[in-house]
Amino acid sequence: MNRLSNTSQLLAAAVEELSMLPGIGAKSALRFALFLLDQPLENVERFGSAILKMRREITNCPICNNITDTPICSICTDGKRDSTTICLVESFRDLISIENTGEYNGVYHVLGGLISPMDGVSPSNLSIQTLVERVEKGDIKEVIMALSTTIEGETTAFFIYRKLIPFDIKVSTIARGVGFGDNLEYTDQLTLGRSIARRQPFNP
After folding, report:
1. 0.90 exceeded by the pTM?
2. Whether domain 2-57 has CATH 1.20.1740.10
3. CATH number for the domain formed by residue range(s) 67-201
4. Where are the alpha helices (DSSP H) in the chain?
5. Tens of pLDDT along 60-73?
6. Where do the structural domains in the chain lie, given as residue ranges?
7. Is 104 in contact with 87 (CB distance < 8 Å)?
8. What DSSP string describes 77-109?
9. Cα 73–105–177 angle (5° rounding)?
10. Among positive and negative, which fits the CA dihedral 10, 12, 17, 23?
């Protein structure tokens, strides 16, 4: 990086920022920076504007905690979806993975993580209370635990199950087509779709 800054401090700064992206090392960051440097200025301005607009305007849906650029996300406002069934997921990435299967037509609730004391993540850091409040309203018939089959996922599912016991609803979990220790994000669509379709009662 020092040698690069001797050539151009602006290029070095751009490479340093690009290197912050997941999975992008210094060599890839330099390749991307040089690519952008070769593009017409209007293309780079459009690229930068899209990134800034995304960061400034995307928020979380107040109902399900999904990301959205409207007051309420498009899934929660879709009248064709089954609003009595909630699929509980760890993150937006898992939501997208399930949507891509085409096997689910209910709504979602995004936790924003999993309980992990080792990482300093407690139940209060997640959107668990808002899930309970949705169920309390009495319109929900089923909550599907579509969490990663890791120790953290199992711990989180059990904690939430205990919270939902007082309510007269069905609590289910995805079928074991998803193996223990797997993250939903990396599960193939066919397996994940079958796991959703063949969900079974949650047995802690």
Report:
1. no
2. no
3. 3.40.1360.10
4. 2-7, 9-18, 26-38, 41-57, 92-99, 128-136, 151-164, 189-197
5. 999 999 999 999 99
6. 2-57, 67-201
7. yes
8. T-TTSEEEEEEEESSHHHHHHHHTTT---EEEE
9. 115
10. positive
